[in-house]
């Protein structure tokens, strides 16, 4: 090899590195967004692949739970959207056998699960809190969710909306949460009902729930933050 | 400097110094580590603390726009989530190819190299005499390359803990938990970035042939005897 003219060899060696020119695509604005979109989509696919259905998030001891006052309120606009608590009921629709309105009393009548889990914000902070509520799994059985359904979508009393994969919804720690720290959910944390999903980032855990739909396809409006560039999957 | 060395160790036959996988992963991660550091800094500004959210003690105030990438947290995460695959992929390509080819023996820092580190430091920084060279890389180089690789591996593993603390909970435990993984991720980045200035200075000092061999693989006028490793 070495006795061949060096410049012939090096030309071939340069060609071997040519895939690196793809980096140039990130410098072209029109390509950049598509490449990054593909990167995030692949990350979401990989996240889905590593999700373990029955692997539980650590439930911490009482001593590890942050005091209620130090559990952050995180809202994207208002912490107390207008809700008629007297009339409130969760409107359930989509691929379910028993659509309709479900009162808080009906949800509370399901077996209650509580755990002390880490709430992780996409920003980088986290807080271990105490959460209680009905398992989404039980609720989806009650409303008769179709077995082949793939997604769960929710809308909120504010303009927030979210959706998640049915696998995470059926995870044993995924809750329709109506209690924190053994007390009814307060307004800033999403009264009367929020999602508590220890296997998802905070922005997936929508507060002030108003509607819940079981679907086979994702709606165009998938996720308040996901539609602005965050990962849709948002799994932990 | 190069001339005097050639006088003593003259071996003028060009040698194939850097295999393709090494060059490919080198250039891929030369770009990627910068993208990850800049987008990572943007991500960090969303919560510039290693403590609790309440009360929040910020470690950074304003960060110059030239040092960050992505514009906002969501934009930076898109860069980070895209390039993390390139970084880990190129790292894996490098490690596997080094192990399979046996080339790692020229560069891996081992216990035998420990004694040679100080004489090289004295040579580079304290005008000490140049220790006799033995092989492609001197002990200080081996230490630098090996520790940078280790920092890279740690940054991938701690990144996995932060990305999937529930799925990779055992890995998280190994790194001392979620908070600790976040700190170690930051330290590993500093370790990798710390390598770059010294590396660039040495590349500048060693001249064109040395630089060009990381592009083509071939070194025209090597100043050491070629190891027996093939292509």
Give the topology, please:
The complex is a heterodimer of chains A (236) and B (231).
Chain A: H1 6-16, H2 29-50, E1 90-94, E2 100-102, H3 104-108, E3 112-120, E4 126-135, H4 136-143, E5 151-156, E6 161-165, H5 166-169, E7 175-180, E8 183-184, E9 194-196, E10 209-215
Parallel strand pairs in A: 1-10
Antiparallel strand pairs in A: 1-2, 3-4, 4-7, 5-6, 5-10, 7-8, 7-9
Chain B: H1 2-9, E1 15-16, H2 20-46, H3 73-101, H4 114-125, H5 139-163, H6 169-174, H7 178-216, E2 218-219
Antiparallel strand pairs in B: 1-2
Helix pairs in contact in B: 2-3, 2-7, 3-5, 5-7
How is this structure best described in words?
The complex is a heterodimer of chains A (236) and B (231). Chain A is of the alpha+beta class and 236 residues long. Chain A has two domains: 1-50, no CATH class; 58-228, Sulfite Oxidase, Chain A, domain 2, CATH 3.90.420.10. Helices cover 21% and strands 24% of the residues of chain A. Chain A has helices at residues 6-16, 29-50, 104-108, 136-143, 166-169; strands at 90-94, 100-102, 112-120, 126-135, 151-156, 161-165, 175-180, 183-184, 194-196, 209-215. A five-stranded mixed beta sheet of chain A has the order 2-1-10-5-6. In chain A, a hairpin with a 2-residue loop joins β7 (175-180) and β8. Chain B is mainly alpha-helical and 231 residues long. Helices cover 63% and strands 2% of the residues of chain B. Chain B has two domains: 18-49 and 61-106, no CATH class; 113-127 and 134-216, no CATH class. Classes of the chains: A alpha+beta (236), B mainly alpha (231).
